[in-house]
Each structure stands twice: as C-alpha cells, then as structure tokens.
Amino acid sequence: MTPPTITVIIAQCVQRSFISPLPGPDPRLKPCHLHCGYANAVRLLGGGPQRLPNALEEFLWLAHGGESGNVPGSEHVHVIYVDDEHHDDGSALTRQHFELFGRHCVPGEVDERGLEGYKGTGRTAEWRDLRNGRTHVVRTPGLNDNMFGTGFIPVLTSICQEAEEVFGVAPEGVQILNIGGWSIIKELFCGVWELMHHGIPDYRDPANREATIRFQRVALSDALSYSVQREHHNIALEITQMLGGVVLRAPEEALGFCGLRP
Ligand SMILES: [Zn+2]
Q1: What torsion do the CA atoms of 8, 202, 216, 241 make, to the nearest 10 degrees?
Q2: CATH topology for the 7-258 domain
C-alpha cells in the first residue's frame, strides 16, 4: 500500500485583529496597522459589492472535514492555528509592540467597535475547539518567529511522529501549506524558509542536536494569504519560489495540494 500524503496547514494569525470585515476602505477603520485592510478582507472573507464567497473559511472548513467531518482527504490534513497573543502585562516588550502596530490580540478584550481581536476570524473561532486530533492551536508573542518560545515545534513533531508510526511517512515528506497573515513576514520566514532550510529538531536522533528535519514540499497559497501591501505580497510569492517552495494561485489549487476532494 502506498503511504498517504500528510498535509499540515499553517493558518498564521487568522484572527479578528488582522482579518475581519471593515465598513469601508478608509485605512483609519482598521483596528490596528497589521490588519489586512478592506480589499484583502473582501478577497479572503468574501462579501463586498460583488458578493464574493468566503474563500478562507470555506477552505478551512473542508480541511477540517466539513459538516460531516469526513470530506475525502481531510483525514490526512492537519491544521495548526498559529495565534498572536499579547496579555497586557505592562512589559516593555508588549508596550513597544503596541506602539509600533497598534493594540491587537489581547485575550478577553473587546475594542470600542465591539471587535474581539484575539478571537479567530469568523467561524474559525469555533473550529479551534475541534477535537478531531487534527486541529492544533499554538500561541506566539512575536511577529517573526514560530519556533522560539511557542509550542510550535512540539505540535509539528507530534504530527511527524504520528505520520511515521501510523502511516510510514518519513517526516521530511510531510507537506506544509501556509495561509493567513503577512506572506512577506510570517509565511515567508516562519512558514517557508524556516521549515525548508532551517528545519525542526529531529526526534529520531535525540543525541545529535544538529540533526534537523527539513520539509521538502512547502507551499504558500496566494488566494488564502495577504500582506498589508500588495507589492510585498507579490515579492513574498517570488521569494517562495526562489527558495524552492510552491506558490498556489486559486483556492482550488490549495484544495488539490491538500488532497481534499469535496
Ligand atoms: Zn502582535
């Protein structure tokens, strides 16, 4: 029997402070500087004058298995929500971060417009609680690193171990798809470069601290991600390809990459 293809979708910062509908394109309506903006919100979450579909949530819902929970292919698809989190602890680090980007992702906080910025975008807030063994949440205090000071490596390691022990898939063969926030920063650096070229510690060789698992097949979805500026997003897509990563265009290509057959 040929082993299945295991996919890990990294949903970077799919949170209301960053991806939520806005009443109009005026940038002053954004809850913080890191918000994707009106045009990106319509592109990702749908609506607007053309009544576009909610591409981001439709994709994630299929990845989770849909209403029935068993969309063909979804049994081999994991989703890791990497969430930004800033408890207002008064520390210099938090203060500086807020001064630079505006207040965002404070757990339990509702802003003056009623936005709960820390929560997951739209229905993804509920989906973070799915108990299907394939849905994971990692919280990170920093913009530029998934690896340091978060639970990211243990989650990815456990997925790799399961892939190897249950399905006979070598960890390097687990494939990664990046969606969500800041293709130019989080997805390109944390999602593509770190995973393809830096790697995560190799659990198969615990005595050798230099041993790493480097993922061979890493993709970034154009349709399901954004940077605040369009030109940055396009640069991120170009660099992804230069690094050996895959750029997927339409949402259907992301479904195909994950082996989802709705
Ligand atoms: Zn932040």
Answers
A1: 90
A2: Rossmann fold (3.40.50)
